[in-house]
Amino acid sequence: MEEANSDVREERMKQVTKVVFLLNITKVGKWACWYTNLVVVEIPEGVESIDFRAFYYCKSLTSVSFPTTLKLVGNQAFWYCSSLVNVDLLHTNLQKIEEYAFSHCSELKSMTIPDSLQTLGQYIFDGCCKLSPHLDKNSIYYQYSDPSDSDSNSDSDSYSEDKPPDERTLKVIDHLRSLQS
Predict the structure, then answer these.
(1) How do residues 62-72 score in pLDDT, each as one tens digit?
(2) Which residue ranges are recorded for the region named Disordered (predicted)?
(3) What is the Cα–Cα distance from 46 to 70, expressed in whole angstroms?
(4) Backbone angles phi, psi at 64, to 5 degrees
(5) What is the domain-level CATH number for residue 83?
């Protein structure tokens, strides 16, 4: 019976196409919008964190507006948001992007990251084969590269804080360090 209830919940979540966030919230909680058919999301000012799998498997999601107050994008927050093309975090106070946050966003072509970013989890771009790192004057951004250059470094879905950062994450860290000098 529990499995049947889970299937019903999943089907109901797929019917969700719009979410209105309350004012005065400080986080988008775990599993908040998973498996929905959201297309555009506007996260309100005051939100500081987007938690574990908040937008997990939102395959129709094409655009997210992030608040300046954002500090954390959690583990697998946007996992398999395969229609997401651009992510602009430049005007946020982002400090940490956790493991697998944007993994398998297969259409993701560009991402802008602010100087405030201090910590990157491993495999944050796993399966994002259209991204490659570039430096701009004051920020790191990722932009479209050859789609045949798939850089999938993970052969399992397991997560461990003890694992060292993957090669792509190390490139971002190196770029961030070069900006600080």
Answers:
(1) 999 999 999 99
(2) 144-171
(3) 8
(4) -135, 130
(5) 3.80.10
- SS3 of 76-137: CCCCCCCCCCEEECCCCCCCEECCCCCCCCCCCCEEEECCCCCEECCCCCCCCCCEEEEECC
Tokens 């106070």, located at residue: 93
Query: Which residues touch 149 (CB under 8 Å, ≥6 apart)?
Result: 129, 132
Q: Which two tokens stand for residue 111?
A: 């991402």
Q: Is residue 164 part of a domain?
A: yes
Q: What DSSP element (H or E) covers 7?
A: helix 2-14
Q: Which domain holds residue 27?
A: 14-181
User: Of 49, 100, 57, whose CA–CA distance to 82 is shortest?
Assistant: 57
Give the three-class secondary structure for 6. Answer: helix
Tell me, what's the pLDDT at 87? Answer: 93
Q: Which residues on adjacent β-strands are paired with residue 87?
A: 111
Both tokens of residue 156?
């399992």
Please give the pLDDT value at position 40.
Answer: 93
